[in-house]
Amino acid sequence: MNLAVMQPYLFPYIGYWQLINAVDTFVIYDDVNFIKGGYINRNNILQNGNSQLITLELIASSPNKRINEISIGNNSNKLLRTIRQNYSKAPFFQDVSPMLEEILNNEQEELTKFLGSSLVKISKYLNIETKFLYSSDIKNDKTFKAQDRLIEMSKILNATGYINSIGGIELYDKEVFSQNNINLQFLKSSEILYKQFNNEFVANLSIVDILMFNSTDNIKNMLTQFELI
After folding, report:
1. In Å, how far are 123, 135, 165, 189, 223 from 227, measured between CA atoms?
2. 196-225: per-residue pLDDT in tens?
3. Per-residue pLDDT tens for 47-93?
4. Domain residue limits at 60
5. Helix, strand, or coil (residue 174)
6. Contacts from 96-104 at CB under 8 Å and sequence distance 24+?
7. Quick check: 52 and 33 in contact, CB under 8 A?
């Protein structure tokens, strides 16, 4: 069984979904400290041919709080309007819009559950069958740090493989994982290109952009465009 553990993000980029699709179980890492200025509550969409940041409002967020201790504010309807304004003429807007409405109209106030729900809903839309868990629901030693905690969660869940995004290649040691009978691999995304209106392509936007311009079949193909190293 292959496992991945990642903090929840707002409408994450395609590499995050490749990781979800590549594993059997995906653990939403919600009982670690919130990272201010990261992508937990924000991401980029296309606006007038350029990358534009959208941000989910949070209440009293702090790096001293765990992600699952933070609540969301009340600007989700504003985000929905912004997305509609910028993508109403996109080819798959009518297909994707009901799902985005369901995600952003979610009355869940806890940031973790709000984001977790969005990951589940988009996965269902893309026919991804990966199982989702929250790290806070796994009985493990919360005092463990970095790779030690990931190894412990892997053991608890009987994972023989652990896949991480390429950004973790400097953080995690394949030999240490191997000593614990876990095969550690890193996912490196290939270049993903697609047509966005008639503008010059803007890369590294959120999954919202990909959903708006591509069929589910095309996206499923994108999910396989990576290598494991």
Report:
1. 21, 26, 11, 7, 11
2. 998 899 999 999 999 999 999 999 999 999
3. 999 999 999 999 999 999 999 999 999 999 999 999 999 999 999 99
4. 2-228
5. helix
6. 96/125, 96/208, 96/211, 96/212, 99/125, 100/208, 104/76, 104/77, 104/79, 104/80
7. no
104/82 Cα distance (integer angstroms): 12
Q: Which of 102, 96, 103 minimizes the C-alpha distance to 219?
A: 96
| Phi, psi (degrees; rounded to nearest 5) at 113 | -70, -35
Number of compact structural domains in the chain? 1
Tokens of 65: 């709080």
List of residues 6+ apart from 170 with CB closer than 8 A: none
CA distance 98 to 224: 26
In contact, 157 and 2? CB cutoff 8 Å: no
Q: How far apart are CA 205 and CA 196, in angstroms?
A: 11
Phi then psi for residue 124, to 5 deg, are: -65, -40
- What is the sign of the dihedral through the CA atoms of 117, 149, 37 and 11? negative
